[in-house]
Design brief:
779 residues; Jelly Rolls; Glycosyltransferase; 4 domains; ten-stranded mixed β-sheet; binds alpha-L-rhamnopyranose
């Protein structure tokens, strides 16, 4: 394809990702209660099984909501998911859950009525979203849509659907919001609504709400579930006299308990990630109240606030009847229920803690949407954070379905925004009043590159080329749009950029003020994205596109070299991040790369092996050092414990990855910036390097059909163990480094070939089986 001048490349609309196939024949209608009932209405109907057809042999409940729902059938809770149907780009995609409820209808040919009930909450649909205090962005009415399909022994089918015959009434929940928390008045609690013949006093009718049924899609990702529990490690009284609880781990979920106390008295739970001045440190939550309340009934009350979630390690408890003990409370960990597939461990305990913090960061921020943070008035699907973290996520968890689902939202948003990948997906920011100090949304490097980089990470990890074909429209449209934005020089030095966001020298109030020139960062990112789209086009047999994007990459490289490589071989802005990106993204030729590597190593050493990168550079700096022969500097950077560094938070008792290198300052006070989360996964992206370089497991081919086993010991680490459940079976690598060199054990699953590369040693090709290599002289 002839190459068009860069500045005039047009942006054809992205091709649509095919929606997940909806096989339900919907006759149900979305129904909304005639009264809002404090944002937590109950909806119910009664039906009887049709006699004369034998027992029920199959029953499936399909359900979704505007808001979040919990379904009940025949007196039992349906499913163990919470916060369904999660958050998607509701304007174009509303996902429904399908439950096998056959067991719940195993009642014989019983003519007694059966209750189908749905409890609703505000969730993402109608609750607060974003930092401006706004809510109701998708609609101001809650609603539910359910269709129960029953099949009998003789093949007869019966259908129970949400329609205008349903009734709606109040629950014991008197307030609920994801950011602010949940209030329950136990005096109002009763299960009677789930029983047939319920009087339904004070209940009202329902009306049909608005929902285009062609926007329904089945859930393809695992749902959010309770995935763990923690008990209090410590309960004490703060200097101001408050009762505080430490769960020992910054986690995401809620606190559950059973209690008995005077009727009408109120227990208040406030949540926070950190303590400051020995009290609950709530300032980082900004306007999120993160407060749950239970008004006691006088009898034994059970409390579990499933219509909210909090990011917290500490809890302040007010109003507990009698003395609070560790046996009284359980913290419930809530997350998209992803299977853990990758492990890592080594002889350095601080690194192991760092790695555990990364895992907790993924757990806590994968609550249906991959978010920046789980605690403050934000919790948004920031694209750049995932662009940085996706290679780590796909190793730790089987995140294919989860990320592909999110990519569908990205695709939908982008198609309605002229090819622009927004800052966040789902893009709720488009509804917020545009603050003058906030940039007008447009394509931005790293953030918008998520269309390409996240897709590529999923493809590399799982090897399924359909992720490329599904996301190709979004990938290509993004890069075409950027190509239309570059300046006549061919550099992407136009428009707003987050750049090397949160560079450690950026002042607390200006996270974008980085040492790295934003144009250099963005142009390097364009090279990478154009290369990856060219490669994807090639794999998909789209030859013209492959040529177009390869040409674009070549032109952008040339422009980068012409304008950003200075005569003395340094790069414009001479910052760690620009070298890291230019090296890892293959922007420079061999000689330039070697010089850039030396300059990078010199800068890293000059910086005392303290970290000097933000969101853009951090995922790549250790690779850039490794690739250019400066492994020792990569280890010294990784093992630094002084601020700023990866391990500084570990020395400050962090149990998750922080948003800022110094979210907590060395004196124990919270960073004064108004954006200071203690659970942000982006800077944890170094775990990807740890898996490949310390652990020694990397894909040599997408999906690990060939696995590259190339541990590069250093930093005084004397052993490491890692394993990965690949699509073909488990790969396991462990090594010990002794005086004679490396002893290596490798397990290779059937159908997989391992390319073993050792420092200074020969490259071996191993087939399936358990292999013991000893000792290979260390380089
Ligand atoms: C912050 C978010 C996120 C980052 C953006 C640019 O508000 O927390 O981490 O991607 O800024």
């Amino acid at each position: 394809m002839p190459s068009a001048p860069l500045a005039t490349v047009s942006t054809p609309p992205a091709e649509a990702t095919p929606p997940a196939e909806d096989t339900v024949d919907w006759t149900a209608r979305l129904i909304s209660p005639d009264d809002d009932f404090a944002g937590a209405p109950l909806l119910r109907t009664e039906f009887t099984l049709e006699p004369g057809h034998g027992p029920v042999t199959a029953a499936v409940l399909h359900a979704t909501a505007h808001g979040v729902f919990e379904a009940h059938l025949n007196g039992a809770r349906v499913g163990d998911d919470v916060l369904s149907p999660g958050w998607s780009s509701y304007e174009w995609r509303l996902r429904y859950r399908s439950y096998d409820v056959t067991d719940l209808l195993a009642v014989g040919e019983d003519p007694a009525p059966i209750v189908l009930g749905l409890a609703l909450g505000n969730g993402w649909y109608r609750g607060r979203l974003g930092w401006s205090g706004g809510r109701d962005y998708y609609g101001d009415e809650l609603g539910a849509l359910a269709q129960l399909e029953i099949t009998y022994a003789d093949g007869h089918g019966q259908r129970v659907v949400t329609d205008t015959d349903w009734r709606a009434g109040p629950s014991a929940v008197t307030a609920n919001d994801l950011y602010d928390g949940q209030d329950v008045d136990a005096r109002l609690a009763s299960d009677d609504w789930l029983r047939p013949g319920f009087a339904a006093d004070g209940w009202v009718g329902v009306h049909v709400g608005e929902r285009d049924l062609t926007t329904l899609e089945p859930y393809s990702s695992p749902p959010v579930r309770r995935v763990g529990e923690r008990v209090p490690e410590r309960i004490w009284t703060s200097p101001s006299g408050r009762t505080l609880v430490d769960f020992g781990q910054n986690l995401v979920g809620w606190v559950r308990f059973t209690v008995q106390g005077p009727a009408g008295s109120v227990i208040t739970l406030r949540h926070a990630e950190v303590l400051e001045h020995e009290e609950l440190g709530t300032r980082p939550l900004r306007s999120a109240k993160a407060t749950d309340r239970l008004t006691l009934s006088g009898d034994e009350d059970f409390f579990e606030p499933t219509l909210t979630f909090h990011g917290f390690r500490y809890l302040e408890v007010d109003g507990w009847p009698g003395g609070l003990t560790a046996d009284d409370l359980t913290a419930v960990v809530v997350s998209t229920d992803l299977e853990r597939i990758g492990t890592f461990e080594c002889s350095d305990e601080l690194l192991n803690r760092l790695h555990r913090n990364v895992v907790w960061g993924a757990r806590g921020n994968f609550v249906d949407v991959p978010t920046d943070c789980p605690q403050r008035d934000e919790r948004l699907g920031w694209t750049g954070d995932l662009a940085a973290f996706a290679p780590t996520a796909v190793y730790l968890f089987d995140s294919s379905d989860f990320l592909r689902d999110w990519l569908r939202d990205l695709d939908a948003e982008q198609r309605h925004a002229d090819g622009m990948v927004p800052f966040v997906v789902p893009d709720v920011l488009k509804y917020l009043e545009h603050p003058p100090e906030f940039p007008a949304p447009d394509s931005t490097a790293v953030w918008s590159d998520a269309a390409v980089w996240v897709t590529w990470a999923v493809y590399q990890a799982y090897g399924d080329v359909s992720v490329l074909s599904d996301a190709y429209g979004a990938m290509a449209a993004h890069v075409r749009r950027v190509a239309s934005k570059v300046s006549p020089t061919g550099l992407w030095d136009t428009g707003f950029q987050f750049g090397d966001w949160l560079d450690p020298t950026a002042p607390p109030e200006d996270a974008a003020r980085a040492k790295a020139d934003p144009g250099v960062v963005a142009t390097a990112c364009l090279v990478r994205s154009a290369d990856l789209v060219a490669e994807s086009a090639r794999l998909l047999g789209r030859d013209e596109d492959a040529t177009f994007f390869a040409d674009l990459a070549a032109r952008t490289r040339a422009a980068f070299v012409e304008h950003y490589v200075l005569d003395d071989g340094t790069l414009r802005s001479d910052a760690v991040t620009v070298y890291a990106l230019a090296i890892v993204f293959g922007v420079l030729d061999e000689a330039q790369t070697a010089r850039a590597g030396d300059r990078l190593a010199a800068l890293v050493a000059e910086g005392g092996h303290h970290i000097q990168t933000g969101f853009a550079g951090t995922p790549f700096v250790t690779d850039a050092l490794t690739l250019t022969g400066h492994l020792d500097d990569a280890y010294r950077l990784l093992l630094q414990t002084e601020c700023p560094s990866w391990l500084y938070p570990v020395t400050m008792d962090a149990t998750t990855i922080w948003e800022r290198w110094d979210s907590m300052l060395p004196d124990g006070t919270i960073n004064p910036g108004e954006m200071t989360s203690f659970n942000h996964y982006a800077l944890g992206a170094v775990a990807d390097w740890m898996h490949r370089t310390i652990g020694g497991i990397a894909p040599a081919e997408p999906g690990y059909r060939r696995v590259r086993v190339a541990p590069r010991p250093g930093g005084g680490i004397v052993w490491a163990r890692s394993s990965l459940q690949t699509p073909y079976g488990e790969v396991a690598v462990s090594w010990t480094d002794g005086p004679d060199g490396l002893t290596l054990d490798i397990e290779v699953p059937d159908g997989v070939t391992a390319d073993v590369e050792l420092p200074g040693g020969p490259v071996a090709e191993l087939s399936a089986g358990a292999h013991h290599l000893e000792p290979v002289p260390a380089g």
